[in-house]
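Data card: per-record layout.
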Amino acid sequence: MSHRIFGIIGWKNSGKTTLMTRLVEEFTGRGLTVSALKHAHHTFDIDHPGRDSYRFREAGARQVALVSPHRWALMHELRDEEKPALDQVLAQIGPCDLLLVEGYKGGPFAKIEARSTRSLTQEPLSDEDPRIVAVASETEMQTGGLPVFDINDIAGIADFIAAHLDLTKK
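The structure for this 170-residue chain is written out next.
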């Protein structure tokens, strides 16, 4: 399945998650169906000790589905398996107009790099990745000729992404 994918990358504390959240809201407000994918570098849980789903996983279930009238989730416990490749994860994402991806710095899709003076790491990622097509920052900076957006110019960034991916408004 092919998706129109655009990535948001940057070092820790660069504003990636806030930018992603605001872009999801912006594109949804424009009438697009948006899905989001976040690459985490740490262990996480979406359920908690004592909950039924947690108990099922602890008992050894490889997959646990939670379904309610408002949402559903499928958890896959990797056990001794390798973390799935990006294309395997993408195959699990349903149809959408736009898939925004936070992380996956090496992913084979266009990306915007979030930069911040709050980040401890300041080296630009765009110097090493030709798929980075723009930079979003709270301050003016050198970008090697890439378009630079104020990180709070959500409409402008969304317009840039829409034009880059040839998304049409509904």
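Known properties of this structure: The beta strands are 5-9, 34-38, 63-67, 72-76, 98-102, 111-115, 132-137, 148-150. Residues 5-45+83-165 form a domain with the Rossmann fold fold (CATH 3.40.50.300).

See the next section for split statistics.
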